[in-house]
Amino acid sequence: MVGPGAGLGDRARAIVALGGLSDCLVLLADTPVEELRVAALDAACAALDRRPPAADSAASAR
């Protein structure tokens, strides 16, 4: 996600994104997988300040 030369902000965002993904898997384990995948990736990408691929494909399906 970030290389060894990444700044502190980029490294912190990567940690939050990865940690948040694992938290979602544990704390929302009763959520249907497809719903959880979209929501968790959206949140992780927001932490990274990037748009998630899942949101792109969901938007084009509309």
Task: Note the main attributes of this structure.
single chain, mainly alpha, 3 helices, elongated, disordered C terminus
Low-pLDDT regions: 55-62
The largest sheet is: none
Structure class: mainly alpha
The helix count comes to: 3
Portion in beta strands = under 5%
Binned, the helix content reads: over 70%
Can you tell me about this structure?
The chain is 73% helix and 0% strand. It is built from three helices and no strands. The chain has helices at residues 8-27, 33-48, 53-61. Helix 1 (8-27) packs antiparallel against helix 2 (33-48). 6% of the residues are buried.
In short:
The chain has 62 residues and is mostly helical. The protein is built from three helices and no strands.
Topology (SSEs and partners):
Elements: H1 8-27, H2 33-48, H3 53-61
Helix pairs in contact: 1-2
